[in-house]
Write a structure and sequence with these properties.
The chain is an alpha+beta fold and 359 residues long. It is built from eight helices and ten strands. It folds into two domains: 122 residues; 152 residues, 3-layer Sandwich (Rieske Iron-sulfur Protein), CATH 2.102.10. Strands 1-2-3-4 form a four-stranded antiparallel beta sheet. A four-stranded antiparallel beta sheet has the order 5-6-7-8, with no helix packed on it.
Length: 359
């Protein structure tokens, strides 16, 4: 083995290129330096600079106008009317206003940087990043240089219009939060109290459980073992969208399931909340309000598809996984004289996610 290694080293040392074989010898790459500076038209012509400045602050003021229009569109086309045309116009014109507001800010900022800010090339040397006595002074100088190069401090029209555009662009988003608040009306005096709105649904004593969305009442005998049915109050099916169908349904929607009676773990004060193994739980997740609509028949678990919270149907729909903090509210049920499933009462607690005033 040692003899073979010695022969290989001798062969390498004695190797010489053939006369016809070209060997490339490369020199170190030279630094090409900065390309020749191209002077912009705005640096050569003061009139062009003024036009660029006017263009930039005009774009920023267009952004302000677009933000104001988005707020106006929210008021001109109220989605509370329930009319499809108003909902479409609301989404269209608010979206166009917000899009134009943000687009004008972006185009104005790019044009500002390309046509007005300092166009001189410079080299920034790298150095160790550690705390020194001169760090504060150097940082202040950087801000001062940036202010001088951008003209932010000198060009008041651009600065003020940019500030106005940025502030105005937030207004549509803030105004849209108004849609989350309840609205007072003569027919619904409780509408001004969000706690009352969230604490009660359309369920009441004697309300028949009906299929969603047909409104057909459900007999206990029609439910097979392992079934899961989406349920609404029978009265809800007769409501129109103008009368608040969607709002009431969002609170009252229920998932009805049938298990073997001996599979249920029931507290003493809830033994009469189910009927012959049939239980009803709110479909609104207690995390952020997504619809809990996936039922695992073998494990008797309810799954929320939004954030994977899981609830155990056999044990008061308690949370067994995920970010939900509370069990799903249970709707007390029984049957009437005709065998139809009915509610004993409304939910005994507010449905949906937590809020500050919840007890």
């Amino acid at each position: 083995m040692a003899h073979e290694d010695d022969a290989l080293e001798h062969e390498r040392a004695s190797w010489k290129p053939s006369p016809g074989l070209a060997v490339a010898v490369t020199d170190p790459v030279q630094n090409p330096g900065l390309p020749p500076h191209r002077t912009r038209i705005t640096d050569q012509d003061p009139a062009a600079m003024k036009r660029a400045v006017r263009t930039v602050y005009t774009l920023f003021y267009i952004s302000v106008a677009a933000s104001v229009w988005a707020v106006a569109a929210y008021m001109l086309f109220p989605i509370e009317s329930g009319r499809i045309i108003d909902i479409r116009h609301n989404n269209l014109f608010i979206g166009l206003g917000i899009a134009l507001a943000l687009l004008a800010i972006g185009i104005g900022a790019i044009h500002w940087s390309k046509a007005i800010m300092s166009d001189k090339e410079f080299i920034e040397p790298r150095h160790a990043t550690r705390g020194r006595d001169t760090t504060r002074e150097a940082a202040i100088q950087v801000f001062a240089d940036a202010n001088e190069e951008s003209g932010f401090g000198r060009r008041t029209m651009i600065r003020n219009s940019l500030i106005a555009a940025v502030v105005a662009s937030v207004a549509p988003g803030i105004v849209l939060f108004r849609g989350l608040a309840p609205h007072n009306s003569p027919d619904h005096p409780e509408a001004g109290d969000p706690v009352a709105l969230l604490s009660h649904t359309m369920w009441k004593e004697g309300s028949r459980l009906a299929h969603d969305p047909t409104g057909k009442p459900i007999r206990a005998a029609d439910l097979t073992l392992g079934s899961a049915v989406h349920v609404i109050p029978e009265e809800l099916a007769s409501l129109s969208h103008h009368d608040g169908y969607l709002e009431e349904k969002a609170k009252a929607i229920v998932l009805l399931m049938r298990l073997l009676p001996d599979q249920l773990i029931e507290a003493d004060d809830r033994k009469d909340w189910s009927y012959n193994g049939i239980v009803a739980y709110s479909k609104v997740c207690t995390h952020v309000g997504c619809p809990v609509a996936l039922y695992e028949q073998q494990t008797h678990h309810l799954l929320c598809p939004c954030h994977q919270s899981q609830f155990d149907v056999t044990d008061h729909a308690k949370v067994i996984f995920g970010p939900a903090a509370r069990p799903l509210p249970q709707l007390p049920i029984t049957v009437d004289d005709e065998g139809y499933l009915i509610a004993r009462s409304d939910f005994q607690e507010p449905v949906g996610p937590s809020f500050w005033e919840r007890h």
